[in-house]
Design a protein that fits this description.
The protein has a single domain (2-220), classed as 4-Layer Sandwich (Metallo-beta-lactamase, Chain A). It has six helices and 14 strands. The protein has helices at residues 37-46, 64-67, 70-77, 85-93, 106-118, 189-200; strands at residues 2-4, 7-9, 18-22, 25-29, 54-58, 80-84, 128-130, 135-136, 142-146, 155-159, 164-168, 171-174, 177-180, 206-209. The longest helix is centred in the middle third of the chain and has 13 residues, at 106-118. The chain is globular, with a radius of gyration of 16 Å. The two termini are 28 Å apart.
Length: 224
Amino acid sequence: MKITDNIRLIPNVQANSYLILEPEGLTIIDTGMPFSEAQTLKYIASLGRSAEEIKHILITHADLDHYGCLAALKEASGARTYASQPEAEAMAKGISSRPVNRSVGRFQAFVIRLMGKYLKPTPFQVDEILKEGDVLPVLGGLQVVDTKGHSPGHIAFFAPSVRILFCGDSMKSSDKGLHTSRSRNNWDQSLAEASVRKLAMLGAQIVCPGHGPVITDAGSRFPV
């Protein structure tokens, strides 16, 4: 899916994985589930680009559906990889950075158990630790925003030059707009709500969440 001339939502990947295309190279934000790398690389090839052009892979947080194929994409591309300290420590162990809340319905609990048995991320040591205020050489300066709450070290990425926010799971979206991540999925609900208020102050016009549709008129659609 085309979001802007140089930003795409990679199709058929769960959760949302974003591709930034620039002349000097490609950037991926979150990788999706294990075994998603084939679809990602196929899509990149369909755009006339190659795996070797992937220069940066950014991870918002250490959930299976956000870094599941990070190791495979790193192997295919040699890209430099990034995450915050708490999330990087979890990824190095091949786990999530906080316990996954299992107080859900019977079917959902079954799905979680099944995924935990058969779909596991490869433990991975990222190349660079990110923190609040760091700026990456992407989209004219991609700012790292501390958005802890959904997980202990959750981060988002904001490009002020184009007013685009990649918010990971700090918010989700629907056709009604943006929503704070559900409390049963959050490490700390009060911090999650504070992070949403923080993001609302950035002035983003396009919000790219980890789940749900991209919101292209985000100015008045934040849940605060």
